[in-house]
Amino acid sequence: MGNRTEEEVSIIKVSSLTCIDLDNSDLHQSAVLLKQACLDSGFFYVINHGISEELKDEAFEQSKKFFALPLEEKMKVLRNEKYRGYAPFHDSLLDPKNQVRGDYKEGFTIGFEGGKDGPHGDKPFHSPNIWPNSDVLPGWRETMEKYYQEALRVCKSIARIMALALDLDVDYFNTPEMLGNPIADMVLFHYEGKSDPSKGIYACGAHSDFGMMSLLATDGVMGLQICKNKDVKPQKWEYIPSIKGAYIVNLGDLLERWSNGYFKSTLHRVLGNGQDRYSIPFFLKPSHDCIIECLPTCQSENNLPKYPAIKCSTYISQRYKAAHAHLKQT
Ligand code: OGA
Ligand code: NI
């Protein structure tokens, strides 16, 4: 169960993060800031992203309406083998060493569908989405599809700054092969209950995200914590507050691997404080067939690639399976 005594004595404080203005036309200036944030904590805020507060609020309102439906109605859109749709409480378990049960959250996943007639339509992570009945939740699908497109657009504009921060060409990631047909999931989450680390109960267990980057919106209820250095014991957890109008962005393991460990994918978790909490992360990964091998600017004679090349879809499948492995035992 890990070392809970150490956990309990750890100091919890509120962290301040770098803020990247996506409206700043000086991309090189933004890249300097972003690089420092990626080396330091792997977390930062973005502002002036162009997603209206109205659209974001609408997505949260619709999300709340879905989770307020009777379980029977939600089970009609139970997630399929492609992880699209409704995931009930405890469906995922991200930190098996410290958690006695799956996460105290329910979710709903909407993914990238790919071109229906094109070569991407039948890829495992590009299957059709599942939608709640439009008589039950009118306008729901439309809101979510609109928000999805906006979140993807923002991620792509962050990817340009990220490329510069890695000394790559500004559009290095924004090619048809890389982000043209991404594996990208928008997940609606509803957390409940009070977490108790001393009992192994977490709203969301400690983990690092799988993909390239995650764009997170929350309803403002505190809960998200990061641990900047997972090897320092006792672990120090810091709260990341939500700022109105800003998104929280964090890097995932795939980017850490791609950058040869240069950029950090930081451990984080969610603690419930007894209040309901809603969040909408958007998880971006490159296209299925994109080969994740050490970026040209992240290796040298003295710094050889640390990880073998791997196909993006292979890597992501492995990670999804691991996060749901506990379900087979119950
Ligand atoms: C996640 C995550 C944080 C939140 O789903 O990977 O870290 O606030 N979510 O919901
Ligand atoms: Ni996460």
How is the largest sheet built, in terms of strand order? 2-3-11-8-13-6-5-4
How large, in whole angstroms, is the Cα Rg? 19 Å
Quote the distance from N terminus to C terminus. Answer: 19 Å
Q: How many E strands?
A: 15
Distinct small molecules? N-oxalylglycine, nickel (II) ion
Mean pLDDT: 91
Bulk shape: globular
Query: What is the strand content?
Result: 15-25%
Output the number of helix runs: 8
- Percent range for helical residues? 25-40%
Question: Could you explain how this protein is built, in words?
Answer:
The protein is of the alpha+beta class and 330 residues long. It is built from eight helices and 15 strands. The strands form three sheets. Strands 2-3-11-8-13-6-5-4 form an eight-stranded mixed beta sheet. A five-stranded mixed beta sheet has the order 1-10-9-12-7, with no helix packed on it. α2 (27-40) crosses α5 and α3 crosses α5 (140-165). The longest helix has 26 residues, at 140-165. It is globular, with a radius of gyration of 19 Å. The structure holds N-oxalylglycine and nickel (II) ion (NI). Residues 207, 209, 268 line the site of nickel (II) ion (NI). Nickel (II) ion is lined by residues 207, 209, 268.
Primary descriptors:
binds nickel (II) ion; disordered N terminus; globular; binds N-oxalylglycine; 330 residues; 8 helices; alpha+beta
